[in-house]
Amino acid sequence: PRRREHASDKLRASFDDMSSPYVYTACSSDDIADVYAIERASYPADEAASLESLTMRCAEANEFFMLCRCSSTNAIIGYVCSTLTARETLDHDSMTTHDASGSTLCVHSVVVAPSWRSRGVGKALLGRYCDEWIFGDERLRQRVRVMRLLCKDNLIAFYQTYGGFTLDGESSVVHGAETWFDMHRRADRAIGMYVC
């Protein structure tokens, strides 16, 4: 499907003007193969999203699927993808479908390509997604009441510091072999700690 216009398209010009090393765009169907390769390289097999899931998120929840590209090569170096649910909490059903009438945004993946890790890309990616892509877009801000995600213990501090998320506790969701934790962030929590 054709990429939907997003408020961040206006921001793209300002990012380029600031000589940012990153450019943020919506995902298109042409990008899915590259996104899937990064997903498979970033998660264990029992945790990685399937090609079908990523394709569905791009087609049905495109406005919530943000890519980070290297400004000099246009290569995809990271992404965040999410879907909406009408449920208050995350469970298997809310994490596998997209309910456009929902107001809870389920963040599925915050991923940086292996060769781009330890360069601050993840911090910039998460900050831009939360503060500008979602809550900086007035239309999306009206639709998204709260963002929710599941993460492993070693990433709790990352999401608290760079995304403004609050820890809710251990999740009841079973996904892969490890324990997951529920976190949330409301629209009124501005962070702005990203640097690029």
* Average pLDDT over all residues: 86
Number of helices: 7
Q: Helix coverage percent of residues?
A: 25-40%
As a percent range, the share of strand residues is: 15-25%
* Spatial separation of the terminal alpha carbons: 29 Å
Regarding quaternary structure, what we see is single chain
Shape: globular
**Which structural category do the helix and sheet elements fall into?**
alpha+beta
Number of strands: 7
Element-level helix/strand string: HEHHEEHEHHEHEE
Rg over CA atoms, rounded to whole Å, is 15 Å
Largest sheet: 7 strands, mixed
Low-confidence stretches: 7-18
Strand order, sheet with most strands = 1-2-3-4-5-7-6
Explain what this protein looks like in three dimensions.
- The protein has seven helices and seven strands; from the N terminus they run αβααββαβααβαββ.
- It has 196 residues and is of the alpha+beta class.
- A seven-stranded mixed beta sheet has the order 1-2-3-4-5-7-6, sandwiched between helices.
- The chain is globular, with a radius of gyration of 15 Å.
- The two termini are 29 Å apart.
- The relative contact order is 0.15.
